[in-house]
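User: Hey, quick favor. My workstation is busy. Could you predict this chain's structure for me?
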Amino acid sequence: MRILSIVIPAYNEEASIGTLLEKIGRVDLESVGVNKEVIVVDDCSSDRTGEIVKQHKNVSYYLQPENRGKGSAVKRGISVSTGDWVLVQDADLEYEPNDYIPMIEAASHDPEHTSIYGSRLLGQCVFSPEGKLIKSKHRDQKFVNWFANRVLTVFAFMLLGKWITDTLTAYKLYPGKLIRSYKIVTSGFETDHELTTFLVRSNIKIIELPIHYYPRSVEDGKKIKATDFFIALITFLRFRFRRLP
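Assistant: No problem, here it is.
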């Protein structure tokens, strides 16, 4: 059977990590011929995140020696993964693990050369009164976050020639062998954009699928900041012209 490595970078997520791991455990990937490998990388949390993770069987736990950023936690998780695919799963409850199944099915025809992006915008598609399909933001998502995502879509298209509706999605399914061969440079939220640029420049097919999305607020623990938007722009520029490994 093929293996899906689920890499979960976590920092002070005691309120959600236990529920998330239970939800992942209930996803029946064997129905599509896949086993799960769950990897939690704790980015030096100061709460009970690690204690809660250790209570769950069949979950590999790695503790960062200091808080180094999401990208560094993702990098470590990828390095110890063994799966045919690697999927990065945020430790909160904004995303639905049952969406793993359609993502895997979409990648199964060519797992070494296909990446699947779970688009929150496609997941919010609605029909207008005229019967036209329009892309809508989630009613609970802040407009500024939605708008920043649209700007990044246009910017990435101008640089890479690839239209990606949701460059900021945290659900990205990567070919395992390929992503382990790449040396990640960045250490924060911008790692997503570094990897997107690498995939496009490596001629990996990116397929977007609609996913479920339940946005949380800063008060609920969301950590991304306005400055991360500008870092994202710089990251796309930086890795568009950087020599591929």
